[in-house]
Amino acid sequence: MSSSGALIEADIVVVGAGSAGCALAARLSADPGLRVLVLEAGRRDRLGITRLPAALLRTIGNPRYDWAYTSEPDPTRGGQSELWPRGRTLGGSSAINGMIYVRGAAADYDAWEAMGCDGWGWRDVLPAFRRLETADAPDATHRGGTGPQRVSALRWRHRLAADFIESGVACGIPRSADLNGPQHEGIGWNQGSIRDGRRHSAYDAFLAPVLGRPNLTVLDDVLVERLTFAGRRTTGLEARRGGVPLQVVARRGVVLTAGAINTPQLLMLSGIGEAEALRRLGIAPVLDAPEVGQNLMEHPGLYVQAEMTEPTANRETTPLRAAWHLARWLVRHDGPVSVPTAQALAFFRSTPEAAEPDLQFHIFPYGSTIGRGGKRVIPRRNLATILMNANFPRSRGWLELRSADPAAPIAIHPRLLDHADDVATLLHGLDWVRRMAGTGPFGAGLRSLIGVPPATAGREADLAYLRAATRPFYHPAGTCRMGPDAGAVVSPDLAVQGMEGLWVADVSVFPRHIAGNTNATALMIGDRAADLIATALRPGAARQAEAVLEAA
């Protein structure tokens, strides 16, 4: 013990036990000669509440499991602000998300490569995707069958989701047998990060099975306050665990895997960011990196409540039915309690002229509302929810520190509808919602789209609705952009430019958003980072890094 608190040493320190961090630490610690320390701000879920898929209705927005950020008023949407959930427990957001497993389109990663991110094309990332999963339908070219992450088909399907798929096909969206297969474009059944009817978080999949490794240490309830440096070399970090100071020495380096919100926050708290903004808060700049916290990308879209004529899953939430389904889950691990939020997904083009599928549908076989105290409730009505979002937003928001206090939440400025192209794409998406609502068999069972103006009201009414109703889809990315240019926060090898022994490996490195939910891509980034960091740690790599720093 030192006067400043406990002292811990490791070769590599991983900050954040979310999707990328768990995948990364599991692979790095497979080398017995490398001591790996993982630090997570949240506490472990000792009761196993998060493993119950339906429990997300109780964990999202709950400070026990969620950072529960609130965004700043968005002037592009009439001053709207809302909850921005981010997981705060072992497993990170994979412990509280909707368990939707989508890898994105091959073209997404080829676009990263075309932007100068060598090594991130589809041919490069596909082996990582296959290596990390065990899918229900593995094959020799696209899906994995031996990886730690279980990816399962639904154990319970609601009829209206099947009707939604058929209506999508009738509207011209190709039918897909596997949305993670060779053809991303299409409509089909969702797959979930679920094992035997239980949520299979990144912690459950990657870290929990290898906790017996003597060179791996995982600590929860650790709030990292700042990184420490010797010049431009990262030496470790300062933190608190349960209020007690903790000094961590990183002999080989630190990897930030805290996600699109917390990773840039920690960089800025440590003096890596826009120098003048840091000085105003009393933070001594270590590296002037103006793009840290910029380039915030989020999927904007609509959550449209649909009133149906036939019973939806809302009818399964009465006390008697809920008790029956919980008992069914405990015995058989199936039923409504065992499945992800979305039953079916679609990736499709807003117009025939669109170069790639720029819209996504989700269908939830239930609808919910916000009740007293901000709690989400499921009313006893026959509701379903059609979710429609833009895949490739051109609008950009940003993050900024409120103060130099590590415990103060960072300010999130979404600006979801800042770019006219996003507004145009979502207007086309609204047309698609109406098209699905008017096409059988799904449309045949629809009473109304709640709150959606009729098409006859005109585009001005649509635009007003869009400004009032557009919401984030909980897929923030891009705030530590990866690229080959001097302005990028990290280079394509995930090293923070201008620093030594510091990497970022999470969705904050996205140079462009992907068509799909982000959890699978976060796992892939963690897996790829293990190879890149192992290469950097080889003999001779340190001398090469020093030469780069001197040249800079």
UniProtKB/TrEMBL annotation:
Q: Which residues form a coiled coil?
A: none
- Binding of FAD, residues: 224
- Return the PROSITE patterns for the record: GMC_OXRED_1 (PS00623), GMC_OXRED_2 (PS00624)
Which cofactor does the UniProt annotation name?
FAD
Which residues are in the Glucose-methanol-choline oxidoreductase N-terminal domain? 87-110, 259-273
Q: Protease: is it a keyword of this entry?
A: no
The organism's place on the tree of life at top rank: Bacteria
Keywords for this protein: FAD, Flavoprotein
Gene3D superfamilies associated with the record: 3.30.410.40, FAD/NAD(P)-binding domain
Q: Which InterPro entries match?
A: FAD/NAD-bd_sf, GMC_OxRdtase, GMC_OxRdtase_N, GMC_OxRtase_C
One molecular function GO term is:
oxidoreductase activity, acting on CH-OH group of donors
A Pfam family per the record: GMC_oxred_C
Q: What family does this chain come from, according to its entry? A: Belongs to the GMC oxidoreductase family.
Q: Which PANTHER family match?
A: CHOLINE DEHYDROGENASE, MITOCHONDRIAL, GLUCOSE-METHANOL-CHOLINE GMC OXIDOREDUCTASE
Q: Name the chain's protein.
A: Choline dehydrogenase
- Organism, by scientific name, is Belnapia rosea
